[in-house]
Specification:
The protein has helices spanning about 40-45, 100-115, 120-155, 160-170, 180-240; strands at about 5, 10-15, 20, 30-35, 50-55, 65-75, 75-85. By secondary structure, the chain is α+β, with helices and mostly antiparallel strands. It folds into two domains: about 5-85, no CATH class; about 100-205. α2 crosses α3. Bound molecules: zinc ion. The site of zinc ion has 9 residues, from loops.
Length: about 240
């Protein structure tokens, strides 16, 4: 696979038809089209080890920025590595509606770290979030959450080393967090989301659903009674005649 910036600023990219990223603006896995390359003369003059290219998202038309390492400089073209770094990544989403304010704040910071590829910082914020959850929910709920955490490992078939790492980060407050890799952070993300779902979101949604159902049923009962009365008043005169 070759990517070259030509003297006239055009781009030769053998993967052009297949280049797709998850757009940080519209969140769609979309094909992206190159729209801007660095000034060729300045590239040859300064010879940076990495260059940025600007693409447009074909779904929402927003700019998408990718950074490529330079493989070699030539008089009429610059050769780039096909590997790239996405400068903006899609933000991780979570329904914060049912979370206490402090826990929401901590987990929002955790997701910001994750979205910016700061996986060790993400793990530290997950540990802080978990500590706040356990302080809020008490020791009995902590035990239940631990069981559910272990269940999630079996359901999602998570490998033992990654699971133990996540478990120590979340449940062992004395764990010194080492450098975390992207694949490990991805597992920790799903386990943390599940933990918060079990601790707050599931209960909150259930309570709200029951409350709404009861509200509408009591409304229906009132309406039914009113309807019955109306029918009576209509029916009675007809019977008399
Ligand atoms: Zn887009």
């Amino acid at each position: 696979m070759s990517i070259e910036i030509n003297q006239d600023g055009s781009l030769n990219d053998s993967r052009e038809q297949h280049l797709a990223v998850k757009c940080p603006h519209c969140d769609v896995l979309s094909h992206i089209t190159p729209v801007s390359t660095p000034d060729f003369n300045k590239l040859l003059r300064f010879k940076p080890s990495q260059v940025g290219l600007v693409y447009r998202c074909d779904s929402c038309n927003s700019p998408v920025f990718l950074k490529h390492a330079v493989k070699s400089y030539h008089t009429d073209y610059v050769s780039l590595s096909s590997h790239y770094i996405e400068i903006e990544r899609p933000r991780e989403k979570f329904s914060y509606n049912y979370l206490p304010e402090e826990i929401e704040g901590l987990f929002r910071e955790a997701l910001t770290c994750y979205s910016n590829n700061c996986f060790t910082a993400f793990a530290v914020m997950c540990q802080k979030t978990a500590q706040a959850v356990f302080a809020d929910q008490g020791s009995m709920m902590r035990l239940r959450l631990f069981d559910q955490f272990t269940e999630a490992r079996d359901m999602a078939d998570i490998d033992e080393n990654t699971f133990v790492l996540s478990k120590n980060i979340v449940f062992d407050t004395d764990t010194k967090i080492r450098l975390i890799r992207a694949t490990e952070a991805a597992v920790l993300m799903e386990l943390m989301k599940d933990l918060l779902y079990q601790a707050y979101v599931r209960k909150g949604k259930l309570q709200q659903a029951v409350m709404m159902r009861q509200f509408f049923i009591s409304g229906d009962e009132t309406t039914d009674t009113a309807d019955d009365k109306e029918e009576d008043t209509v029916v009675l005169p007809t019977q008399e005649s």
